[in-house]
Design brief:
This protein is mainly α. It has helices at residues 17-43, 50-80, 86-118, 128-151, 153-156, 160-181; strands spanning 184-188, 191-195. Helix 1 runs parallel beside helix 6 (160-181), helix 2 (50-80) runs antiparallel to helix 3 (86-118) and helix 3 (86-118) packs antiparallel against helix 4 (128-151).
Amino acid sequence: MANWTNVTREPETGLPTMLVQAVSIAFVMCVCELVSAPVMVSAVGGAFALMPWFLVACLFAVAFVYTVGFVLLWAADSFAARLKRRDALMPLIYAVIGCVGFGIWGYCVYPATMNSIITRAGLPTLSQGDSLMIGINCAVVGLAAFFLGTAAMPRVMKSKGRIAVTAAAVIALAVFGGVSTGQRRWRRTGRAHVRGGGYDIAMVSAVKACITV
């Protein structure tokens, strides 16, 4: 049975299997966030810029994987240790846990963040249907990321160099997303206001005009 002291390691690199899985899942999740960014932006009527929102979404995704994600991976491994067909069922178990976990995370975190920005610009908050759609989108992303990140990506991560580069890339995206969320600027009634001396990568206006700098 999996536990915190019994660490399974990859034979090729000697790194903990759970670490390699987490890096792989974070990478796949960032790719999925790029693909699904138009869906998220459409939920707020185009009030956010596409690529800046992608960076913010990467921040949320990477934060989820490197915190809650580790717990979910350990829980899935512990549960599967009791099953007879463990190897065959593991990808499906990971996929289900990722779907549920990231779906709940997305439903709670994403709409709250969007509303915190658009309400300051005088725009209406997301409807319950929009929030549900965002949660479903995140559930699909979680399912795909946990399935591919545990079933396919580890086969590509055959060296410490690839793992390090991939980990650095997703962390860099998360850092850019964090810097972006701390720098906000929006328009109201045709006049720009600067908050905290910075500029927001997800600028909004009363007429849903999005600008970036």
